Amino acid sequence: MNSRVLFLNLLFVGFLFVGCEYFSTSTHTPQQIKKASQWSDKDQLPGFESCQDEAEEDRFSCFKNTIASAVNQALYAEELIANQEIDQEIVLEIQIDKEGNISLLSIENASSTLDALPELSTLLENAIANLPQALPATKTNVGVTVDSQLKLPIRVIASPE
Question: What was the pLDDT predicted at 33?
Fold first, then answer.
């Protein structure tokens, strides 16, 4: 019986030494993580299904133009009346999340424009919210979809009625 117990103990210890290899973890430096996370030319930019027929180098331009066109149509569809003269560029900061949902994060350089056209903010938010579902950006080196942001400049020119 003692030899059996001794054999089982040796076998168990042997498994522990062999099995330790499977429990090892690798560590990565912050520099390695940062390098792997940086955007590269091989990564896939966000897009719309309607832009997938375009040449690869034109897909992102199609994506931006689709957003700009939707914003322009939303603004031209309304009869906006300014309470003062405006000639200013505002910047829409737009987020495309991992699922392809598009949202307006902020409107930069817009304080005087929004004072003159208070309903502009709501119109822009609605225009962005009504965009079709996007194809999210993809980090191809790890094969995962990622959140992305873009900035869309818009020139607002208006005069009081």
Answer: 65
Strand partners, 88: 156
Whole-number Å distance between alpha carbons of 82 and 11? 84
Residue 109: its pLDDT value, please?
83
pTM value is 0.71
Task: Please give the structure tokens belonging to residue 85.
Answer: 């003269």
Of 149, 152, 134, 126, the closest CA to residue 68 belongs to: 152
Rounded Cα distance between 114 and 90, Å, is: 10
Which string of b and e fits 13-49 if b means at least 16 CB within 10 Å?
eeeeeeeeeeeeeeeeeeeeeeeeeeeeeeebbbbbe
Cβ atoms < 10 Å from Cβ of 148: 18
- Give pLDDT < 50 ranges for the chain: none
Query: Residue 136's closest CA among 151, 127, 148?
Result: 148
pLDDT at 118: 84
What pLDDT digit, counting tens, does each position of 71-104 carry? 989 988 888 778 888 888 999 999 999 999 999 9
Q: How far is it, in rounded angstroms, from Cα 124 to Cα 105?
A: 11
Rounded to whole angstroms, the Cα distance separating 77 from 90 reads 19
